[in-house]
Amino acid sequence: MITIHTDRQSFAYDIHSLVKAFYPAEDVHVVGSGADGEQGTAKTPEDGTGRALKLVVSFVTENGGAPQRSEQSAGQETEEAGCTIRACFWECGEVVQQGEVVILSGTDRKEVKNELKRLLYRLLQEQTGRTLPWGTLTGIRPTKIPMSLLEQGWKNARIAQYMRDTYYCSKEKTALAIAIANRERHILKDINLENGYSLYVGIPFCPSICLYCSFSSSPIHLWKDQVDAYLDALCREIDYVSEELSGRELNTVYIGGGTPTTLEPRQLERLLSKLEQKFEFGKLLEFTVEAGRPDSITRGKLQVLKDHGISRISINPQTMNQATLDFIGRKHTVGQTVEAFVLARDMGFDNINMDLIVGLPGEGEAEVEHTMRELAKLDPDSVTVHSLAVKRASRLRLFREEHRELTMTNSQEIMAMTARYAQQFGMFPYYLYRQKNMAGNFENVGYAKEGKEGIYNILIMEEMQSILALGAGAATKLAFAKDRIERIENVKDIRNYIDRIDEMIGRKRSGLQEWLG
Predict the structure, then answer these.
(1) What mean pLDDT do residues 464-485 have?
(2) pTM
């Protein structure tokens, strides 16, 4: 276990995230203070036992006191008198690594954070002998940095140097982030980001729950008799939101989950007809339905989607290795994936995405390459490569002792190999995001052929447009400005959502009234 002591709690999350990135298998906890109240010097932790590691981070002024902070007119916290950041790693009562960095007076909080993380990165690199592909970046949207700098008129070469110097990003990840930022700007150039909006509709049911899953979804067999009641509540939320936004331009619609195709054809018909009746689709650029699980796809359901002009669907194998599918609880076969894809193609769907997960238990480079070769035979229009993120609620994390013998491997070589195959498919990277606890500390990358990119995916990741989200567990994001995103969350529990739909509508009312002016 690793414990972190710091006298600046406002940086505790940043410190924890970076340490966890270097020690993904360790429990990392922030406890207590990193300085004594009188002198502001680093505390010596009690002698540890075993291999317990402790990190002490202190902010100290020249006279030994705690640094003073002030608020600039724009609300940016600064170090008024300057300070020295000191970091020490302790093991069994002995200092094993230490360093410090001087912060000049008037330095804003963002640069203080960067200096702190660079200091910790250097110490952690020495301590572990490892480097991280994304350097000190621990946030989920690394492309926001080059996107912002491009908007300021920076050239690619200058951005690349900045990302390497400021965040210690590898050359490969720096190039990837800049390439994606440029492509995103091109794709979004004609979209009404300020006055338009996108719509997300959540269907929180799945055929079964995968071992790694932490989404707000439930097995359909347990809720079979309540699906219509859920749609009743969802339709009430649709009625309210469509009325409030009647004067706004709708750009994309995404029906996700869960697995939307767990709905029966008549239920899909009801939902899609309701959306068509209530929203103006005249400016709609994309309508995606995440068909997802191949074992939920039938000709009848695809026909409903086709009849309603759905422009983009996902058929998600996650892997084309049957042994892995069986272990993670996907409850479908590789053959069903192929059959669902061929059926959709035969019915005329010309924009089909396929999701993969890299780092699944027991899969290495050979297994991932087998999956890529099988996808090559199908020739999808886009592929999203996810690095496995074992989140807190997933069964794989809850029962990690039981599954300890299974490796969850990802590497730069595996990620580069998937990129090469995507290029052979005629695809290029167009969006990227990261999650906590990712295998190998890598990323999720969407690849697509020209004109087949998922516009909604870019909008939700870059937070450049308001997303109105409906359904259990859905989170609305209202973009008031580039630096202000307000979230409005629905309850995750399906029964609570049905019973408290008036409350969910009420939550949106106050936020929408402010956003709409």
Answers:
(1) 92
(2) 0.87
